[in-house]
Amino acid sequence: MPAAAPDNAPVVRRPRQGLPTPLLVGFALLAAVLLFVILEGRRENAEAPAVAGRQVAMISAPPPLALPDYPQPPELLPAPFVGNPGAVPPRSPPPPPQIVYMPQPAPMGPPPGYETPPAPPRAIGGGSVLVYDGAGGTAAAGSQGSDGDGAQQRGAGPAEAGRVRAGVLANRGTTVVQGSLIPAVLETPLDSSRPGFSRAVVSRDVRGFDGSRILIPRGSRLIGEYRSEATQGQKRAFITWTRLIRPDGATIQLNSPSGDPLGRGGLKAKVNSHFFSRFGEAILQSVLDIGVNAAASATNSPVVILPGGTGAQRPQPTNIAPTLKVAQGTSISVFVARDLDFSGVERR
């Protein structure tokens, strides 16, 4: 019988065969899938409350509006009918009657044997006609009147009703039209203390309307007159020029007012208002009254004052008109008040 081997003797065996490799790989993949599913579930559970809270915050309805309590208007009740219970209620007014427009009959013409009378002729106002008197007469304007001194004309008044026809100016080469200025220089001084005459000489040639001829040559004489009717506050003197005499002997009536070189009416004059002549006595009387009152206030004055003695003798200031003076050599102008036609003397 063979001898038994000791217990501590080494035993030589083949290694145990483990699980096959494909099975291990499958287990590893399964474990990885399970681990992924578990972790993904935990992550979704952790994020779900925040998303839900956000959704609730977005979907939640806004708070109700706080509207103020306005007082409600009272209900309007129909007014109770006050009247006689047995009275009949008023009826509505009847509708207005319908207006039917009837066609107007056509106007009937005149009978066959009737003739229409002719219309009365319409009055046509004639234009101004200028007439020159070669013998030195006064030129008269038709449909216009002039005063004795020629200072004012009716043309300045309101226009008359009617039609005014335009016309063509005749003899334009030998006519000085209305509104022209004739420059001149005074040869005689003017003093309005007394009415009198004045003379001037034309200082520059004046041509006709078309400028082809000299109708009023330089050196022509002007004859005029002025009055002494100066009023308080007047500072310009007025001269009415009545006649023009040319160097060749031709003459024409003017009846035109005077003006300064710019054409303003009147001549600037030196005014003497006679102040001391008008108020000298009144000033003297006022001084005497002041002296008498001062003497009366003195208690030991020997002056005897008669009441009412000075006031009764107070003179009234006289109405003295101012005196206007214009020196000779003053430049003036004559405002032509109407057309001046020289055709009668220019053709000779």
How many strands in all? 15
CATH topology value of one domain: Lipocalin
CATH class division of one domain:
Mainly Beta
Low confidence ranges: 123-156
CATH architecture of one domain: Beta Barrel
Please give the largest β-sheet.
6 strands, antiparallel, barrel
Work out the strand percent: 15-25%
Report, as a whole number of angstroms, the end-to-end distance. 206 Å
> What's the tally of helices?
3
SSE topology string: HEEEEEEEEEEEEHEEEH
Helix content percent band: 10-25%
Order of strands, main sheet, comes to: 2-4-7-9-10-14
Q: Give the radius of gyration.
A: 63 Å
CATH superfamily of one domain: Type IV secretion system, VirB10/TraB/TrbI
Question: How would you describe the shape?
Answer: elongated
Could you say which structural class the secondary elements and strand pairing correspond to? alpha+beta
Mean pLDDT: 74
Outline of this structure?
With 348 residues, this protein is an alpha+beta fold. It contains three helices and 15 strands.
Fold topology:
Layout: H1 21-59, E1 175-176, E2 181-186, E3 190-191, E4 196-202, E5 206-207, E6 214-216, E7 221-226, E8 236-237, E9 240-245, E10 251-259, E11 267-268, E12 270-272, H2 275-297, E13 323-326, E14 331-335, E15 340-341, H3 343-346
Molecular structure report:
The longest helix is centred in the first third of the chain and has 39 residues, at 21-59. The chain has a domain at 171-272 and 323-346: Lipocalin. It has three helices and 15 strands. The strands form five sheets. A six-stranded antiparallel barrel has the order 2-4-7-9-10-14. It has a three-stranded antiparallel sheet with strand order 3-13-12, with no helix packed on it. Strands 1-15 form a two-stranded antiparallel ribbon. The protein has helices spanning 21-59, 275-297, 343-346, and strands at residues 175-176, 181-186, 190-191, 196-202, 206-207, 214-216, 221-226, 236-237, 240-245, 251-259, 267-268, 270-272, 323-326, 331-335, 340-341. With 348 residues, it is an alpha+beta fold.
